[in-house]
Amino acid sequence: MKGAQRTQLSLSRRTCNAHIDSIGGSSIMTILALTTCLSAVPALSKQAKIGATTVPTKAERTACCSTPYTEECVSSLTAHRTSTNINNDQEASFLIAALRSSVAAVQDFRGHCKSDFSEISNSKTCMHSTLGMCVQSLESTENYLNSSISHLELLPESNSAPYMMEDVLTWLSASATYHTTCMDEMSHCSVLEDLNMSLIHGNQSMVRVANSISLARTMYQNYASPKSGEIPNRRLLAAPEIAMYDMDGDYPQWMRVGVRRLLQSSVNDTPYDTVVAKDGSGNYSSVQAAVNGAPSKSNASYVIRIKQGVYDELVNIPSNAYNVMFIGDGINKTIITGNVSVVQNGVTTFRTGTVAIDGDGFLAKDVTFQNTAGAENHQAVATRVDSDKSAFYRCSFEGYQDTLYIHSLRQFYQSCTVYGTVDFIFGNSAAMFQNCNLVCRKPLESQANTVTAQSRTSLDQNTGFSFQDCSVSAAPELASVVTSIYNQSIKSFLGRPWQEYSRTVFIETYMTNVINAAGWVDWNGTNFALATLYFAEYQNFGPGGNFTNRVSWATNITDPEVAAQYSISFISGAQWLPQTGIPFSSNI
């Protein structure tokens, strides 16, 4: 749980709503250490025993050398060895074997979580909330692992291969994120020893997914390796504006071309599938009721017009609702609002979202998403997004701590506004913000503002946050007390590292004097992640945009080619954004 990670918990108090002003270290390391003690090395031996009858080949051992858990990798490859190479591609065969091993481990982990979940009678406890989230997330993990296997089995000998591998790497990065969130939230909801078996299987599952990501990253780099004279990632920057491949069957064909017209037309000219209206003039009076009417796993967009009004409800777009689109009447006209928080409701941060988006291909235009719990109730998410190739246009996200939880997968934000205080844009997605306004509000007396808290846990993951042509400013109640970038009674920073390989980049962004001269801040006064993070800036401007007095561990990008790697290519945007009709820039 993100909020829990920012909490310094005493050994005697592992509760969901512990005080969260201070920032703790990475609790996932505690879990890994504990499960290592609980399980010892032999606990990872289920696959090893299966594979022990098969002598690993030199090629298998060589492939595993670069993975973080080499011996477990070797066991996985030998236990799930394929009879033939896929398209004569030994790398693909090895990765498929690792993925099959990961699927088996995820199924075991999910089974133990379901068993523990069924034994909790009180549905209003933190652990009930956490285990329910784990079961849901692990189901998505299994689906993404199987989709990755399908991609690899169909991997063509064509220019589409790099983009297919980008999909695989994205889905595996999301799978790792789901594991981290699940186990991290477990660690702060109950005594860990009460969940020994779930934690042991969770650790095994994390290890195998981590190895799969490492193998996928190597394979992706080989497919997308630059030609002589080219810089890395230029191939993706020059991608055509239409997808180079489509998938049939259950997998959605992303964002049909007709969607372009829906987002470019006026409200009255747009053809809708259904209409939500508070005054009874539509098909539904609640947003969730309209979402419930969406078809399952549809390749076609399901367009929901949400008329002007305040919709006080919690909304979830489930994982089987593909290509759902919200079209509102404008910011501060169409408002979806809620007030669930960790403090008030005893749930985990993951469950506080007013709107939770789990279905891939989600689009929204001209909608305000709110969580009105207030700063005093700490973690309170306005919108949580776990939707691949999702996009938001002219939307507003309003909250205080943890406003926008961009948890996983590829996301794009154009001409949006985000309000908040502590870590108000956070998660482990690959997210791109263009022409957005980031507005710091006045926090609690003991707090400082941090715009971002990105949570990449491995160099192999293709995740991170990028902000281009945006602005960072103060809300009126904060602007009135901020007079200088140096002497601030209330400090505001661009971000801090939530996990070890946190990655955030600001490009050509205007910053008012609300941003402290240091720019970035460490994790609760510790050296955590300072040697491994990547916090970078390129040609920012304004009173708070001067790099001169930045912390020593931030990077000042001077090469435009390096900055270009964090433009639209960072989320493979040229492959899918044209179909949405949402404007975007491919240039620095």
UniProtKB/TrEMBL annotation:
Signal peptide region: none
Reaction catalyzed: [(1->4)-alpha-D-galacturonosyl methyl ester](n) + n H2O = [(1->4)-alpha-D-galacturonosyl](n) + n methanol + n H(+)
InterPro entries assigned to the protein according to its UniProt record, in alphabetical order: Invertase/methylesterase_inhib, Pectin_lyas_fold, Pectin_lyase_fold/virulence, Pectinesterase_Asp_AS, Pectinesterase_cat, Pectinesterase_inhib_dom, Pectinesterase_Tyr_AS
Statement: the UniProt record of this protein carries the keyword Nucleotide-binding: no
Organism: Ceratodon purpureus
Catalytic-site annotation from UniProt: 423
Domain Pectinesterase inhibitor: 55-213
Source domain of life: Eukaryota
EC number, as in UniProt: 3.1.1.11
Record-linked Pfam families: Pectinesterase (PF01095), PMEI (PF04043)
GO MF terms held by the record: enzyme inhibitor activity; pectinesterase activity
Top EC class, one word: hydrolase
Coiled-coil intervals, chain numbering: none
Cellular compartments annotated: Secreted, Cell wall
Biological function: Acts in the modification of cell walls via demethylesterification of cell wall pectin.
Pathway: Glycan metabolism; pectin degradation; 2-dehydro-3-deoxy-D-gluconate from pectin: step 1/5
Transmembrane segments: none
GO biological process: cell wall modification; pectin catabolic process
Keyword Ubl conjugation set for record: no
Similarity comment: In the N-terminal section; belongs to the PMEI family. In the C-terminal section; belongs to the pectinesterase family.
Listed name of the protein: Pectinesterase
UniProt keyword list: Aspartyl esterase, Cell wall, Cell wall biogenesis/degradation, Hydrolase, Secreted
